[in-house]
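Extended Data, panel c. Modelled sequence:
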Amino acid sequence: MTRLEGRLSGRVALITGASRGIGRAVAIRFAREGADVILVARNQAALEEVDDEIREFGVTASLVPADLTDFDVIDRIGAAIFERWGRLDVLVANAGILGIMGPLAHTSPQVWDQVIAVNLTANWRLIRSVDPLLRSSDSGRAIFVSSGVSGGRAYWGAYAISKGALEAMVRTYAAELAKTNACANVINPGATRTRMRAEAYPGENPDALKPPEAVTDAFLDLAVPECTRNGEIVTL
């Protein structure tokens, strides 16, 4: 099949949490826009299902089944991208977990460590791994996914705290990129029909929420070379 041309033609994009929800929708949208996509998620079978859809656009995704709390694998991903492309044009750091909701004082050390590892530390490791690749692009774009509870909310515990820290980290990183061709921003997608949303609000009617596909325009706008935004938190 002839490869589709679009706003990301010739761009290389790395997307984490790409097997479902927002990550999956962004992966498919970016492929439709012509990007070479590198998809990271823990579930190999689910990644292959995304790849099946992407092939319809004349694109073959690079699939990386990995747990991002294995931090060494993040370094290997960066090295592999360098070997193949020598640059990274777009990073979409979407992977995240909710953990256990409840009083902060009742959060177990195990849950705390896991949520912070996935939602914060893995994203710092991604920055550490791919920063030289983003700077090697003529217009490197890093997009991180946050939440409306990032300012702190009762019973959201480690999740809310990890997202608040993530936003501070991205603003810090963006300031360091200010005089380069790269930039970094945050998207708060708002209430979206995802598995994590269903975990947090089990009594909510999912049909009342926007689907993940509805937020992909915002990701695309931050991913394209023409984007000049840096250090912003985009709330949908």
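The chain has seven helices and seven strands. This feature is highlighted in the accompanying rendering.
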